[in-house]
Write a structure and sequence with these properties.
The structure holds two protein chains of two kinds. By secondary structure, chain A is an alpha/beta fold. Chain A contains nine helices and ten strands. In chain A, helix 4 packs across helix 5. The two termini of chain B are about 35 Å apart. The chains are: A alpha/beta, B mainly alpha.
């Protein structure tokens, strides 16, 4: 569903070059939920922009549903970390969710159905007429998620979406994402710097090395599909996986190669 | 490149008074608290001084008639049809000039502002043309159009164009990169982004430009009538002056001042209405 093939990105400044991403290759099957973790400054956001078609990789390619990405793909939506800046404060909640659908040239009834369904799915059916800035941070990110869902994406990209909300809201939003992923059967790539979050959410955790970035490890998360903030997080397997990802990130920081090659 | 100070570049409104600490909904009426009372008291004091100074002989009443006399003269003028024709002419020159300047500045500002190369290409020319005082164009205006309204328009348009144009350039450049990336990721094309993202982002700047431009346009409209003699309040002032009617000169000056105040209040009301979503207006909620 999502194919990243040898993506490399070099930023060229006036008199120096920065290789943010060296050689990234991975593949997400249809309906998969994968988390991408890596040490800070490892080029996660650069990679996301390349996948989203917002940035052209220096070499390599990205394919979504078998089609090469040259601009923002139609069947992909992105949720950014900075919800306050990503939502348009001059539009109401409903207006924000509906705008991309207008550009998709959907009929009025269809747009209404999708907007209502998406807002209901994130638990904001009553706030349609509010403005984003009248809502709390967690609710604003829900609006951004509703906008992404309403777009009916086959691939959903999320760039550290919960980095700026408090811990309790964060737990709620994590469960919301699991729920939406199961309900709408999308392929989800979730970028985060939080190891616990990555293991809790994903079916798979891709560990990136520090910059210049390669895939350091690919960890399959063999936790049950039904996850719960309390039981899952206290599960022994959760702790083991968490420890494995943690040590890989430490290795990444120290510039060592993966201890064991990825098993996929 | 010279940049305007932040308080002119940044949209502002007069509705933020932290002292009050009361939650106020968007588009709330102009506040009428202790600050307003203080303002009224100030104006009353000023009028009183203006009344006393000539009466006590501190200032010669020939040069400064007392406030009551000036206001009475103004009151009489308000009943004369010719006065309203002059007001109409002034407002026509002002409004038409501002409208032309607005249209041109917004169109050009969006085109030039959206193309960085074009902006750099034109920057030095703009920095040369912008500081030229509009009054320096008066001889040119007379040469081209005589005492026609087009002379007034030339000056008004030239002066207010730059005010708006510069603000539009800043506004177009101030689009949040995250908002822009969001719009692009949802497949919004160039035109759609201008309509749904760039325009609303630039709107606070545009309105600041309009407010500055409106004030300058009024100054130039009156100046043109005074010096060129095209019809309007400025010309009335010139006539009153040559007839030695001091009180009338003052009365007409007060009238132009009143128009200026009304114009500013009007633009501010427009700002509050159009920008009800903007941080400068909504104020009360910490985002």
């Amino acid at each position: 569903m999502l194919d990243v093939n040898g993506v490399q990105k070099i930023y060229r400044g006036k008199d120096r070059e920065v290789e943010a991403v060296r050689d990234l290759t991975f593949r997400l099957e249809e309906g998969e939920l994968a988390c991408l973790v890596g040490p800070s400054g490892c080029g996660k956001t650069t990679l996301l922009k390349c996948i989203a078609g917002l940035l052209k990789p220096t070499s390599g390619s990205v394919e979504v549903a078998g089609k090469a990405v040259t601009g923002p793909p139609r069947d992909m939506s992105v949720v950014f970390q900075e919800y306050g800046r990503s939502l348009f404060s001059w539009l109401t909640v409903q207006g924000n969710v509906e705008l991309p659908l207008k550009e998709k040239k959907l009929s009025k009834e269809r747009r209404r159905t999708l907007v209502t369904e998406a807002l209901e799915a994130v638990g904001l059916a009553d706030s349609a007429r509010s403005y984003p800035w009248q809502l709390s941070g967690g609710m604003q990110q829900r609006v951004a998620i509703a906008r992404a869902i309403a777009y009916e994406p086959r691939v959903l990209l999320m760039d550290e979406p919960f980095a700026a909300v408090d811990a309790q809201t964060r737990a709620d939003l994590e469960d919301l994402i699991r729920g939406l992923w199961q309900r709408f059967s999308m392929t989800v790539l979730f970028i985060t710097h939080d190891i616990d979050e990555a293991v809790y959410l994903g079916q798979r955790v891709l560990v990136l090395s520090s910059s210049p970035t390669v895939v350091q490890d690919d960890v399959a998360v063999d936790l049950p599909a039904e996850r719960d903030q309390l039981t899952t997080r206290s599960d022994q397997r959760f702790t083991e996986l968490r420890a494995r990802v943690y040590s890989e990130i430490q290795n990444a920081k120290n510039g060592q190669a993966a201890s064991a090659p990825a098993a996929t | 490149m010279t940049t305007p100070t932040t308080d002119t570049a940044r949209p502002t409104t007069g509705s933020q008074r932290p002292a009050e600490g009361r939650v106020r909904g968007p588009g709330a009426a102009f506040p009428f608290g202790s600050n307003a009372l203080l303002g009224i008291a100030g104006s009353a004091c000023f009028l009183l001084l203006w009344e006393i100074a000539p009466r006590t002989g501190a200032v010669s009443a020939t040069y400064l008639p007392p406030a009551s006399e000036v206001l009475t003269t103004l009151g009489e003028r308000l009943l004369v049809a010719g006065f309203w024709v002059a007001v109409g002419d002034t407002l026509a020159g002002w409004g038409l000039g501002l409208a032309i300047a607005f249209t041109a500045a917004v169109t050009l500002g969006f085109v030039v502002g959206s193309v960085p190369a074009l902006r750099t290409f034109t920057a030095s020319t703009v920095e040369f043309l912008r500081p030229i005082p509009s009054v320096a164009l008066i001889p040119l205006a007379i040469l081209l159009y005589g005492t026609d309204i087009r002379s007034t328009l030339l000056l008004v348009v030239y002066a207010s164009f730059w005010q708006i144009y510069i603000q539009v350039l800043y506004g177009v450049a101030d689009v949040d990169p995250v908002a822009d990336q969001t719009a692009r990721s949802y497949g919004l094309g160039r035109l759609a982004r201008i309509r749904y993202v760039v325009w609303p982002s630039a709107l606070p700047y545009v309105l600041t430009g309009v407010r500055l431009g409106a004030a300058v346009a009024l100054i130039l409209a009156v100046t043109a009538q005074l010096t060129i003699g095209s019809p309007g309040l400025g010309q009335e002032i010139a006539v009153a002056q040559s007839g030695g009617a001091t009180a009338l000169v003052y009365a007409l000056i007060v009238a132009t001042g009143a128009i200026g105040v009304l114009v500013n209040v009007g633009v501010r009301a427009l700002e509050r209405r159009v920008l009800h979503w903007h941080t400068s207006v909504r104020g009360e909620i910490a985002a």
